[in-house]
Design a protein that fits this description.
5 helices, globular, Alpha-Beta Plaits, alpha+beta
Length: about 240
């Protein structure tokens, strides 16, 4: 039995998230169906660095699986890509030690949230960015983001349905990358809670639009209550960009 680590990319528009759900098309269910086909019906379980929600994309999701098949890494990549649908791509695949775990060995992640700043809706970007046609004070957003840098309890900035008890996380970087009509918020940290990046983004948008002041972020963090943060930004603007090991 050999363990394989793979970096995969997917367009989340046509999936009900990453994790298997009854009667739903998910990234995990599609991957496992293809692996079962290659293994003549034998179920091969796939583990990922973390879940992504319905509509959320991945540029660098990491998975691992075990297989008894003797296939070279190059042939694995070719075979999987030939069987997978067009909205999933295997970017690389490597043999790894059996102790490797895509989720538990991860030491950090990078997420991007893409905003489309056009005043008029562009239908060709509707699944891959969040259109925000209102004026934004990006300097105010940058000022607000500084309150999130470092180690904090992010209870106020995660879904009330978050299952983990420890909500302390460290954010190393929040960058604002402006490219013509697109603004990308780049988040790098040791881990992110359920909906955390989308809630941080939604709150920063409220700062940028003048609904909140940057210094309010410290108070929202201190309250440890989801009700005090901003709205959850829509799924289609979010990308799991990279996982660090």
């Amino acid at each position: 039995m050999q363990r394989y680590k793979s970096i995969i990319s997917y367009d989340g528009s046509g999936f009900s998230g990453y994790q298997i759900q009854p009667r739903s098309r998910t990234v995990q269910s599609v991957l496992e169906a293809v692996l079962a086909k290659m293994h003549k019906g034998e179920q091969i379980k796939v583990s990922a660095s973390g879940r992504t929600d319905a509509g959320v994309h991945a540029k660098g999701q990491v998975i691992h699986f075990d297989s008894p098949l003797s296939i070279s890494e190059e042939k694995w990549e070719t075979a999987l890509n030939s069987l997978l649908p067009e909205d999933i791509s295997i970017l690389s695949i490597l043999k790894v030690d059996s102790s490797f775990h895509a989720r538990f060995d991860a030491i950090g992640k990078e997420y991007h949230y893409v905003l489309q700043l056009l005043k008029k809706r562009d239908p060709f970007h509707r699944n891959f960015s969040y259109q925000y046609p209102y004026d934004l004070n990006i300097e105010a957003m940058k000022e607000a983001s500084r309150f999130f840098i470092g180690t904090h309890d992010f209870t106020s900035f995660c879904s009330a349905r978050t299952e983990v008890e420890d909500k302390i996380r460290t954010i190393e970087t929040i960058d604002f990358l402006l490219d013509n009509d697109f603004l990308t918020l780049r988040f790098v940290g040791n881990g992110f809670l359920y909906n955390m990046v989308r809630i941080l983004t939604g709150t920063l948008l409220e700062v940028g639009s003048g609904k909140r002041r940057p210094e309010e972020m410290a108070d929202i963090l201190a309250k440890k209550d989801r009700r005090f943060a901003g709205k959850t930004a829509p799924a289609q603007g979010l990308y799991l960009w990279k996982v660090f090991y």
